[in-house]
Amino acid sequence: MSLWVAGIIILIVKLLLVLVALLLFAAYLIYVERRLLGFFQLRLGPNRAGPWGLLQPIADAVKLLTKEDLSPTGADRVIFLYAPVVVAAAAILIFAVVPFAPGWTFRGQPIPGVITDLNVGLLYVYALSSLAVYSVALGGWSSNSKYSLLGAIRGAAQMISYELSLGLSLVPIVMMAKSFSLVDIVNAQARCPFILLQPVACIIFFISSVAEMKRIPFDIPEAEHELIAGYHTEYSGMRFGLFFLGEYVTMVTLGALVAVFFLGGWRGPWLPPLLWFLIKVAAVSFVIIWIRGTLGRLRYDQLMHLGWKLLVPVALINIIVTGGVMLAWGYKV
Amino acid sequence: MSIYAIIFYLLGAVIVAATALAITRRNLMHAIVYLVLSFIGTALLFFLLGAPFLAVLEVVIYAGAIMVLFLFIVMMLEIKPEERTLGPWLRQWAPALALSGICLMIMVGFLFLNAGGPGPLLLVTASPLAFGRFLFQKYWLGVEIASFLLFVALVGALYLGRDNSTTGG
User: Fold this and answer.
1) What is the spatial distance between Cα A72 and Cα A70, in angstroms, rounded to a whole number?
2) CA distance linking residue B138 with residue A223, whole number of Å
3) pTM, entire model
4) Per-residue model confidence as pLDDT tens digits over B15-73
5) Which of B29, B52, B63 lies closest to A118 in CB terms?
6) CATH class of B1-80+121-126
7) What ipTM goes with this model?
8) Which residues 208-247 of chain A have a CB within 8 Å of chain B?
9) Of A191, A192, A291, B120, which is most buried with the most CB atoms under 10 A?
10) CA-CA-CA-CA torsion for A161, A165, A167, A170, nearest 10 degrees?
11) Could you tell me the residue ranges of all domains in chain B?
12) Contact (Cβ atoms closer than 8 angstroms) between residue A129 and residue A213
C-alpha cells in the first residue's frame, strides 16, 4: 500500500516539475527571442524589468492576466472562448511522451525519465499536433472578422499540408528504431544519433515543424501587414496569451522532439543527461529564432509548392531508399 | 465495478451524448466540434480496450484529417441552416433509420447468442508490431484492395480537378 501511495506521489511531483519547467522554459524563450532579435537587429531588446530585463516574462504575464477579456459582437462565444485552450493544451500534452533523462532509482524503485512511455508515442505526438489545427481554424472562424477568417483558412490549409511531410519524414526513424516509443527511439541511438544516418529526414522534419508552428518564413496565417494578426486578431488578454504560450510551448516541444528523434535525446558524453537534453532543446530553439531573424516570408504559392512538390516526394523517396538499404543489409524484424 | 468499467461507462455516455448533439445541431460548426469530441471519446475507448494503435489512428485520421477538411469547407462556403420541411426530412432519415435498425438487431442477436459467454474482455494490449504483423499476414488482400480503391479515388480527383483550359477539353 505504501509503495502504491509513494508511486502516486512521485508521479504527481514529476508531473508538476515537468509542467513548471516546461512553462518556465517557454516563458523565458519569449524573453530570449526578444533579446536575440534585438541583437540581430542591432538594438538592445527588453532590458528594463530586473537585471538584464530578466523579469520581463513575469511582467508580461501579469499584464496579460489583468487585461480586459473582450469578445467581439457577433462572435460564436463558446467556441471563441475555448479555442485558445486547445492549442496550449495540445502543446503541453505532447511533452508527456518525451523522455528527458534515462531515469533514476529512489530507494531501489526505478523512476523513469519520462512521464509515460506509450508504445505508440510517436503517433500520439502526431495526433496531438494535428488537433492543434482546430484552435487556429475555430478561433479564426468564431471571431466573426474577415482578417481572422482569412488567417484561419490559410492556417488550416498550411497545417494540413505540412502534417503530411511531418509524418512521412519520421517513417524512416520508426523503421530504424523498430518502435513507435520515444524511449526506444532514444535507446536505438546509443551508437550513432539519427541525424548522421537520416540527414534528409531531419531537414524535412525541421522545416515541416517550423511550418506547423506558423513561424517565419511560414507565418502567412498571421502575416502582419496583410492580416494584422491573422486568426488571433480579435483576441485580448490571457486568451491571446494562451495562443502565444501555445506557440512557445510548441517551440520547446519541437526542440525536444528534434533532440529525441535525431540528436540522440539525453545521450552525450561527460555532462549529466538532463543537462544534455536541455542544451539540445535550447540549441534547436536558438536555430528557430535565428531563422526568424534572418529570412523573409514565403509567398502562398511558394509555401504550397515547397510542401507538396518538394518535401512530400523527397520524404517518400527517403522512405524507399531507407527500406532498400535496410533490406540489403539483411534486416530482420 | 472495477475502475475500467467506470471509465468505460463514463466514456460511453460522453460518446453517445456528443454524437447525439452532433446529429441534432443546426449550426454545422457546432456539429463538427461535437463529432470531433465523439471521435476522441471513441479513441479513448479503443485505448481502454487495449488497442492503442487504433486509438491513435482514430485521432490522426478522423479527428485530425477528415474533420479538418469538413471544417475547412464549412468555413469557405458559409452554409446557412436549412428550413425544416417534411419531404427531404423523411428522405434523409429513412435510410439512416433502416440502417441503425439493422445494426441494432444484429447487436441484440449477438448479445443473445453470447449470453453466459465470457463477459468483460481480457485486459490485454495489442502492440503496434503485433497488430501490423497480424494485419499484413492475415488480411493483406483487404489492405491491398483498400489501398487500390484509394488510389483510384486519387486519380479520379486529379482528373476531375484538372484545369481543362490548358488541355483544350
Assistant:
1) 6
2) 51
3) 0.84
4) 999 999 888 887 788 888 899 899 999 998 888 888 888 888 888 888 888 888 888 88
5) B52
6) mainly alpha
7) 0.81
8) none
9) A291
10) -170
11) 1-80+121-126, 139-169
12) no
